[in-house]
Design goal:
By secondary structure, the protein is α+β, with helices and mostly antiparallel strands. It has 3 domains: 129 residues, no CATH class; 65 residues, Alpha-Beta Plaits (2-Layer Sandwich), CATH 3.30.70; 103 residues, no CATH class. The chain contains 8 helices and 24 strands. A hairpin with a 4-residue loop joins β8 and β9. About 6% of the residues have low confidence. It is found in: Bacterial flagellum basal body.
C-alpha cells in the first residue's frame, strides 16, 4: 500500500512539473504586435466578365457597360455584333480585387474576390474570364480566371423572395496567376524596423529591452533601439542571416502596455473598458422617466331615426412613471472593481454609456473616452 502511494505521488509530481506556470509564460509575441517596415501586401484590382450564369446576369439595357464589354470581347474573337441587339442574361460585369503578398515570385497563385458591378442578381455557377489585375502604378501584376465559389443564394417567387448571404459576391481560390514581381527584395532593406500596430512609448521600450536581453546572450551586444513610440530599429548581425534574425526576434514575448481607454458604440450599445481604466470615487444615481401616450378613439353612433352622422371621438390617455434610481459609490483602481460598481447600480448598456459620459464630464474618468 505504501509503495502504491509513493508511486502515485511521484506520478502526480511529474505531471505538475510538466504544467507551465501562468505568469512565467504570460506574454505576447513581438510578431503579433509589430510588423516589419517594408514587408507589406500590395492591392490589385481589375475589371472583367463572368459568364455561365443561369439567367441571373446583368440586364444589357440597364447595364450598358456590360453590353459594350461583351461586344469588345466578341470583336477580338472575330465576331461582329455591333449592330445586333443582345438579349443574353447569362453574363455579368464584375470587379476583381486581390492582395499581392510581399516577395511573391512569378508563377505563384493568390486568391481573388469577385463582386458584381451591374444589376445581376446572383453570380452562382459563373466563370470569370481572364482579367488583368493592375496595381497602383498601372502595371499588370497578375491575371485572374476560373469558376466562382459563391456561398449566398437568392430564390424568388411571385409573392415572396428568400435571400441568404451575398449572392453577388464570390471568391476564386488560387484564381490569379502572378505575372510580374514587385520590385525589391528582403535582403535589400536598408534597415530592420519593427513598427508597432498600437503605438506606445512604453511598449516600444519593452520591445527594445526584450531584443537587447536576447542579443546580449546571443551576440554579446545590444542590437535594438526604440526610435519613437511606433518604431524599433534593429541592427544587422554579421553571424546571423537576416531571415533567421527576424524569425527569432518575432518569437520573443513581452507584456504590452495599453493606454487607459473606454470605447462606446451608441448604435449597438457596446461598451469596452480597458484594463488600466480608473474612476475617481464618485456617487452615481440614475433613474428613467417613462411617458406613455395611448390613443383609444371611440365611435359615436347617432340615435335611430335621427339625422346625425357617425363620428370618431378621440380619447387620449397620458401616463408618466419614473423608476427609482439606486445611489451607488463607484471608484476603483482595477477593472473588476469598476465593473462591480457599475453592476451594483443595475444599469443597461445604454444607461452605462450615459453614466460614463457624465463621469467623464465631471472629471472622474481617468481615461480617454472614445464615442463611435
Amino acid at each position: 500500500m505504501r509503495r502504491r502511494l509513493l508511486a502515485l505521488l511521484a506520478l502526480l509530481a511529474a505531471g505538475l512539473a510538466l504544467v507551465p506556470a501562468g505568469p512565467a509564460f504570460a506574454g505576447t509575441r513581438i510578431k503579433d504586435i509589430a510588423t516589419l517596415k517594408g514587408v507589406r501586401d500590395n492591392q490589385l484590382f481589375g475589371y472583367g466578365l463572368v459568364t455561365g450564369l443561369q439567367g441571373t446576369g446583368d440586364t444589357l439595357r440597364n447595364a450598358q457597360f456590360t453590353e459594350q464589354s461583351l461586344q469588345s470581347l466578341l470583336d477580338r474573337l472575330g465576331i461582329n455584333v455591333r449592330d445586333a441587339r443582345l438579349r443574353t442574361r447569362n453574363i455579368a460585369a464584375v470587379m476583381v480585387t486581390a492582395d499581392l503578398p510581399p516577395y511573391t515570385g512569378t508563377g505563384s497563385r493568390i486568391d481573388v474576390t469577385v463582386t458584381s458591378l451591374g444589376d445581376a442578381t446572383s453570380l452562382r455557377g459563373g466563370t470569370l474570364l481572364m482579367t488583368p489585375l493592375t496595381g497602383g502604378d498601372g502595371l499588370v501584376y497578375a491575371a485572374a480566371q476560373g469558376p466562382l465559389a459563391v456561398s449566398g443564394f437568392s430564390v424568388q417567387g411571385q409573392a415572396e423572395q428568400l435571400t441568404q448571404g451575398v449572392p453577388t459576391a464570390g471568391r476564386i481560390p488560387n484564381g490569379a496567376l502572378i505575372e510580374r514581381e514587385v520590385p525589391g527584395a528582403f535582403r535589400e532593406l536598408p534597415e530592420l524596423v519593427f513598427e508597432l500596430k498600437n503605438p506606445d512609448f512604453k511598449t516600444a521600450t519593452l520591445v527594445a529591452d526584450a531584443i537587447n536581453a536576447w542579443s546580449l546572450g546571443r551576440f554579446r551586444r545590444r542590437i535594438a533601439n526604440a526610435r519613437d513610440q511606433r518604431s524599433v530599429v534593429v541592427l544587422r548581425s554579421r553571424g546571423e542571416t537576416q531571415t533567421r534574425l527576424v524569425a527569432e526576434i518575432g518569437d520573443l514575448t513581452i507584456q504590452p502596455d495599453v493606454p487607459a481607454r473606454v470605447v462606446v458604440d451608441q448604435r449597438t450599445g457596446t461598451v469596452v473598458i480597458g484594463r488600466n481604466v480608473q474612476i475617481s470615487t464618485v456617487a452615481v444615481t440614475h433613474g428613467n422617466l417613462t411617458v406613455r401616450v395611448t390613443e383609444t378613439p371611440e365611435v359615436s353612433q347617432p340615435g335611430p331615426f335621427s339625422r346625425g352622422e357617425t363620428a370618431v371621438v378621440p380619447r387620449t390617455e397620458v401616463a408618466a412613471r419614473e423608476e427609482q434610481g439606486k445611489l451607488a459609490i463607484i471608484g476603483g483602481s482595477d477593472l473588476q472593481t469598476l465593473v462591480r460598481g457599475l453592476n451594483s447600480v443595475g444599469l443597461k448598456p445604454t444607461d452605462i454609456i450615459a453614466i460614463l459620459q457624465a463621469v467623464k464630464t465631471a472629471g472622474a474618468l481617468q481615461a480617454e473616452l472614445v464615442v463611435q
